[in-house]
Amino acid sequence: MAVKFVSDMAETPGEGDPGGPYFNKERTKCSPDEEARLERQHFWRIIDAFRFYRVHIQEQVKRAERQFQSLPQRHQNLLPAVQSNLARLSKCADHNQEVLQGIIHNSIHMFENIEYGEREDPRKARPSSTFDMDKLKSTLKQFVRDWSETGRGERDTCYQPIIQEIQRLFPSDQYDVSKVSVLVPGAGLGRLAWEIARLGYICQGNEWSFFMLFSSNFVLNRCEKVNSLTLYPWIHQFSNNKKSSDQTRPIRFPDVNPQSLPLDSDFSMVAGDFLEIYTEPDSWDCVATCFFIDTAHNVIQYVETIWKILKPGGVWINLGPLLYHFENMANELSVELSYEDIRTVMVKFGFRIEVEKESVQTTYTENDRSMLRYVYDCVFFVARKPGDLYFNCQEDDQQQNSPPAAKSPRREGTDCLT
Ligand SMILES: C[S@@+](CC[C@H](N)C(=O)[O-])C[C@H]1O[C@@H](n2cnc3c(N)ncnc32)[C@H](O)[C@@H]1O
After folding, report:
1. How far is CA 305 from CA 287, 400, 411, in A?
2. Which of 297, 336, 296, 334 lies closest to 318, judged by CA?
3. Given ligand 1 and candidates 203, 207, 306, which is best to mutate, with the most ligand atoms within 8 Å of its CB?
4. Are 42 and 272 spatial neighbours (Cβ–Cβ below 8 Å)?
5. Considering only CA atoms, which of 54, 209, 232, 55 is closest in space to residue 143?
6. 295 lines ligand 1 (CB under 6 A)
7. How many angstroms does the Cα of residue 97 sit away from the middle of ligand 1?
8. Ligand 1 atom nearest residue 158's Cα
9. Most exposed among 212, 224, 244, 394, judged by the fewest C-beta atoms under 10 Å?
């Protein structure tokens, strides 16, 4: 089953390049034509980043070679395999580039409702910034998390708690799950959304990064044969390797056939800024956020939007840390609230917190052989927009233009049978 990709990118800041036109959220509004031009420029900038990868990695490999060759000969003689290891790195980069070419080959016309046309000046393919190269390297690691057997453990800790809650709250023996709608904002490479759709729920992933969108389109719509493709996602890590071969070990993907969704599945991906696209009140039975809420400039806006778009009785399921993406970025609004403060805001909006775990240990795109490993001590919660509070909330909202406080007792489970 093909997964529909729709773009709603207008006015989307996308992956900001410091100083670039998409960087400043408060940038001056421009005409629709200018918006379209900037959007096209942004699209081609990311395509160029995919194309530039090999050159960028080869520069790093050459630098490593130069450094080693600058050592005294007697030191170099101690490690005759270093040169061949570096040659292997180079080959792995060439291979990664082939996969990246496959991804962009399938990206140019990927959206059902928009074509990005030709680049304004085809001669202007410039070297990409370090910022874009870092994004691309992270995207490669995202393949491990979402679509490889190696990532299974990580997915079990991050995605399974969310999936299990969806199944507990909307069990297939009590609900027609094909009418239960789940939105996954910041869907990354789409695995969580795909798993939810596989269980029969209506599921829509939303994502604004072209790095992620190009790659998820490739996996979801162009990959069929299990473990038929190879990537070398760790070649960019020059430090903290126990063995040289750890740096060049492959991962295979996809670990499942992404096209094996039932034919009647309702699964889509929408490109664009979550805050700008999802404005329709009372639309979703469930919003599932995983490693997402800390991407906000103002996380209260996320809480407000999720409150608004959930149907009365709908639930918000969240798992993730609070590694605020815009912290320390010049010229960017970034409000770094503690979980305690976010919780206060949620309760003031009227959310009823039904499940809460403040210490769920997970990793994110972990290199399991690295000598440096991060563990996130995540919060996990299920918060309900109560059905019985809704009318009070609407009134309060209109009268005071501020969120209502939770007042009435909670209604269990049956609020949003669809
Ligand atoms: C840390 S990643 C998590 C991805 C995925 N949920 C996972 O757990 O692997 C956050 C994702 O949110 C996306 N994102 C950030 N801000 C967004 C926004 N305003 N609208 C849509 N997506 C956004 C980023 O591009 C990124 O892919």
Report:
1. 10, 17, 22
2. 296
3. 207
4. no
5. 232
6. yes
7. 24
8. 8
9. 224
Residue with CA closest to ligand 1 atom 5: 188
**Is the distance from the beta carbon of residue 389 to the nearest atom of ligand 1 less than 6 Å?**
no
Residue 220 CB coordination number (10 Å): 26
Give, using CA atoms, the residue closest to atom 16 of ligand 1. Answer: 295
Whether omega for the bond prior to residue 254 falls within 30 degrees of 0, making it cis, is yes
* Ligand 1 centroid from CA 289, angstroms: 9
Say if ligand 1 is within 6 A of residue 162 CB: no
The gap from C-alpha 264 to its chain's centroid, in whole angstroms, comes to: 25
Residue of 292, 326, 327, 366 best suited for mutating to test ligand 1, as the one with most atoms within 8 Å of CB:
292
Helix (H) / strand (E) containing 267 = strand 267-271
Q: What is the pTM of this model?
A: 0.90
Contact 114, 271 (CB under 8 A): no
Tens of each residue's pLDDT in the chain, 418 residues:
788 899 887 644 456 544 333 233 334 568 888 888 898 999 999 999 999 999 999 999 999 999 999 999 999 999 999 999 999 999 999 999 999 999 999 898 898 888 887 776 665 667 899 999 999 999 999 999 999 999 999 999 999 999 999 999 999 999 999 999 999 999 999 999 999 999 999 999 999 999 999 999 999 999 999 999 999 999 999 999 999 999 999 999 999 999 999 999 999 999 999 999 999 999 999 999 999 999 999 999 999 999 999 999 999 999 999 999 999 999 999 999 999 999 999 999 999 999 999 999 999 999 999 999 999 999 999 999 999 755 444 444 433 333 333 222 222 222 222 2
